[in-house]
Known about the structure:
The chain has 141 residues and is mainly β. The chain has helices at residues 2-12, 47-50, and strands at 30-33, 36-39, 44-46, 58-61, 66-71, 76-79, 84-89, 93-97, 102-107, 111-115, 120-124, 132-134, 137-140.
Amino acid sequence: MLRVILLVVPLLLWIHCSNKDNGGGGEESVTCTDKTCSCNGGAECDATQACGDAKDCSLTCYAKSSCSGSCGEGCIIGCDSEATCSVTVGANGSVGCDPGSTCHVTCTGPCNVDCTPGAKCDLKCASDSAPRKISTATFCK
């Protein structure tokens, strides 16, 4: 019985998302080690499923992947070139958008969004009524 538990627990740490390339055929799209997660290229991944409300979780969305959802306080989202990230981050969260990426970011409290040249970014702070386009590192207070 203990042997079965030891085999099953690590499997529960892997989070499944649908993969665009294989029509959701069951490949691992998000992998996590502790609170560090990555969304494999070409996949559609849910930040809420990967990080939930976990404090200081990180999710990297690799090329041609699409990440959406939300993450808790202090989370870090990395949006690689050719990836699309539509995320809501908790207080003191940060989002990095590489050249060629598209980032739609909503912050529930203070946060930092680093929109590097060549990325397409918009940001909605908690005090904003609508998202605004940004083209450089921008903070929400």
